[in-house]
Amino acid sequence: MLVEQIYTGCLAQGAYYVESKGEAVIIDPLREIQPYLAKAESRGTKIKYVLETHFHADFVSGHVDLAKASGARIVFGPNAETTYDAYIAQDGEELRVGGVTIKVLHTPGHTMESTTYLLQDENGKDYALFSGDTLFIGDVGRPDLAAKSELTQEQLASHLYESLRDKIMPLGDDVLVYPAHGAGSACGKNMSKETVDTLGHQKETNYVLRADMTKDEFVKEVTHGLTPPPSYFPLNVLMNKQGYGNIADVLEKGLQALDSEAFEAAANKTSALVLDTRKPEDFAQGFIPNAINIGIDGGFAPWVGTLIPDIKQQILLVTEEGREEEVVTRLARVGYDYSIGYLKGGFAAWQNAGKETDSITSISPTEFEQRYRQDSTLKVVDVRKPSEYLSEHVETASNAPLDNLNDYLAEIPKDQEVFLHCAGGYRSMIAASILKARGYDNLVNVLEGFRGISGTDVPRTAFVCPSTFFRQGAN
């Protein structure tokens, strides 16, 4: 028996390859399916099942394409309804894979079709639980993401409480827990950076598995402090339920190399968004006017999903040379299938063609300190989350969280120099590019963000937030 976790850090997502005696299953695969096919082929293994723990909201699963390419059968748990061919397993049903058994455990709560899969080894011993978004390491799946659910988040949380108590907690302490996500995912709020643990250790440390916890306490704690999910989540759920275009076609369309003239013509003739995925510091030095910067080396996919509300938005790409396919693929992972080409030769080609460019002023934390000491009335805008801002912030700074930046435009002056910062410089450059495209010309980005500022003597204010049961999750 072989169990392999295939973890994708930029999505904080875990897919799984399980193999026994020439047969394999893939659990919650990403959209690019070639690595799974190559893995099975290299080992002379046939993929028998593609198991889905639920209809994912934060990424488009590869189940449809993988089943077509491998001949495997797609499996969901009870309550799942699809427009494509899939097997809807019953609670308690057992699937044979080589010499091992995978038991279907219906665990509604995160969504009503949510299902976990219990792997039993060749001797029939419970070995591992593939818990999807039902149970994370340190947390539990949030109960407010079920698309078009007739149930309230409190009712879903109540179902989740029962699922954990009736189906998961009775399992042995030595059972391994393999979740669908880790720290950084928006599907939970308190996830550990660890991606696997024993169930016994989770019973000791995970707040949702406290033995003396009542249902009312569970519902209150699980629903407390939930922030609105990214707008693309319901759209991804629909794609996962109804199917989607082949990723090969998406790549072919997105990987059209356009010279500067063709790129400019496409930008002028369509409503395409120019998305620049270079490093923030490179973008600041020069970019195509009205381009939006979301760096590929940061929290790329979640921020694309948060800030580009229409997954059918046409997109023109400016990337680092050689990373074009990576960018198109990572857009497709979250359902953005309408990339229509990229700038051949990158931004340097645009410059060499003598095209118009723009830039954003950036300064060091030291220079910011000097400017602030000279004039403490500087307009400083902190684009971090409200919880980060409340923890500690520059004394006179206002908070305009990047997630909802459009709601704060009226509070950001166009006729005054505005200093933007986040935690490390990634989000503030995204904000700067958005504001620049909306006609804000007096912007200054603080390099290194609050981490850099906190090493200076700039006055800061800290607020002690009301204590809750939750630890602050990693960002």
UniProtKB/TrEMBL annotation:
Q: Which UniProt keywords apply?
A: Hydrolase, Metal-binding
Mention one GO biological process in which this protein takes part, according to its record: glutathione metabolic process
Family matches, as InterPro entries? Metallo-B-lactamas, Mito_Persulfide_Diox, POD-like_MBL-fold, Rhodanese-like_dom, Rhodanese-like_dom_sf, RibonucZ/Hydroxyglut_hydro
GO molecular function of the protein, one example? metal ion binding
Domain Rhodanese residues, every copy: 268-359, 374-462
Instruction: Give the protein's recorded name.
Output: MBL fold metallo-hydrolase
